[in-house]
């Protein structure tokens, strides 16, 4: 499986169109001379992790999202708490749900052995997100590289800037806009929920008390709600996991959008894409009917998100351990 992932990355490097908005100072060829084996190392370990635990692909993809929405794509999410750092891992969006850190550690250790102090943890997250998408059957893209790692974290930013499962559509649109991402990016990127899981606590209100009147969410299919309730009771079971896409939970495809059309989106922030505005609903219908366009838009939006406020040049550092800043 790991060799398969390496082959996929090699094919991407030669076959994917270069017509992407690289932006900033990032460059897909950044490590061509300083660490030419970097992308193969990442792909191999991601492929192995996915083989042993198919859920891990979604977890690694999510780490990149939650990193980029807080202070830009700078690997701040990977920092553990210390005397100078309050870890973003303790924030509401990440506590008891963000995972995959051990896989990142394994990737970083392999990169340090091959090319010490060369490949940033932020670039590891960007590459691992791409490779996790590819290994589950989704699109590939050339990843612009050259990010550097932050010297701190922001638990406040993590609590405030990452879209929440119960946010209204206008709030979600605003949070994306603050990152320079538009409605197309929003609907395409939420398509990553075609893989992965969500905890009961993330959607319980939809089953029992969506608007504070004790009634379930009228936008959730009653039959789907009946299936969910035994595993997500009114109290207890907060950490019980449910597939975001119950039809093809381990395959990166456009089934997520088809589920929304059937009112079977798991999170309120999912289903609101269909019910919240004609613009987002139109994109849901487009992606549900045309997987190729969804894949194209998703790949472009991932590159765009990966360009959010990266540290480059002399800013930040290249951490030797992704969990802590260097002590020079």
Automatic annotation (TrEMBL):
Keywords (A to Z) from UniProt: Calcium, Disulfide bond, Glycoprotein, Heme, Hydrogen peroxide, Iron, Metal-binding, Oxidoreductase, Peroxidase, Pyrrolidone carboxylic acid, Secreted, Signal
Extent of the signal sequence: 1-19
Cofactor remark from the record: Binds 1 heme b (iron(II)-protoporphyrin IX) group per subunit. Binds 2 calcium ions per subunit.
Enzyme Commission number(s): 1.11.1.7
Location of the protein in the cell: Secreted
Binding site for heme b: 193
Entry's family note: Belongs to the peroxidase family. Ascorbate peroxidase subfamily.
Active site positions: 66
Role of this protein: Removal of H(2)O(2), oxidation of toxic reductants, biosynthesis and degradation of lignin, suberization, auxin catabolism, response to environmental stresses such as wounding, pathogen attack and oxidative stress.
Lineage of source species: Eukaryota, Viridiplantae, Streptophyta, Embryophyta, Tracheophyta
Gene Ontology biological process terms, A to Z: hydrogen peroxide catabolic process; response to oxidative stress
Record-annotated site: Transition state stabilizer: 62
Predominant location: secreted
Binding site for Ca(2+) 1: 67, 70, 72, 74, 76, 88
Keyword Heme found: yes
Covalent S-S links between cysteines: 35-115, 68-73, 121-322, 200-232
Residues annotated as binding substrate: 163
GO cellular component, one term: extracellular region
Pfam families, per database record: peroxidase
Top-level taxon in the UniProt lineage: Eukaryota
Protein name in UniProt: Peroxidase
């Amino acid at each position: 499986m790991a060799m398969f992932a390496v082959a996929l990355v090699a094919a991407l490097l030669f076959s994917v169109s270069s017509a992407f908005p690289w932006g900033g100072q990032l460059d897909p060829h950044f490590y061509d001379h300083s660490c030419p084996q970097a992308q193969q190392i990442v792909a191999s370990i991601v492929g192995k992790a996915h083989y042993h635990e198919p859920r891990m692909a979604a977890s690694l993809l999510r780490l990149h999202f939650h990193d980029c929405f807080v202070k830009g794509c700078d690997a701040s999410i990977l920092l553990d708490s210390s005397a100078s750092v309050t870890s973003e891992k303790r924030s509401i969006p990440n506590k008891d749900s963000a995972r995959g850190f051990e896989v990142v550690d394994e990737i970083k250790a392999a990169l340090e052995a091959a090319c010490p102090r060369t490949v940033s943890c932020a670039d590891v997250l960007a590459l691992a997100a791409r490779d996790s998408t590819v290994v589950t059957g989704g699109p590939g893209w050339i990843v612009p590289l050259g990010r550097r790692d932050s010297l701190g974290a922001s638990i406040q930013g993590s609590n405030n800037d990452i879209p929440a499962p119960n946010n209204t559509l206008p709030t979600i649109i605003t949070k994306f806009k603050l990152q320079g991402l538009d409605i197309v990016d929003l609907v395409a990127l939420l398509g990553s929920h075609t893989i992965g899981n969500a905890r009961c606590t993330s959607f319980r209100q939809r089953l029992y008390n969506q608007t504070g009147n004790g009634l379930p969410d009228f936008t959730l299919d009653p039959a789907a709600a009946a299936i969910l309730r035994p595993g997500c009771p009114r109290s207890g079971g907060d950490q019980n996991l449910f597939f975001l896409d119950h039809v093809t939970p381990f395959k990166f495809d456009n089934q997520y959008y088809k589920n929304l059309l059937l009112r079977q989106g798991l999170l309120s922030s999912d289903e609101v894409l269909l019910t919240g505005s004609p613009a987002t609903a139109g994109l849901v219908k487009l992606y549900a009917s045309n997987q190729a366009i969804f894949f194209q838009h998703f790949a472009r939006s991932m590159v765009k998100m990966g360009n959010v406020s990266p540290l480059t040049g002399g800013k930040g550092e290249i951490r030797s351990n992704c969990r802590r800043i260097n002590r020079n």
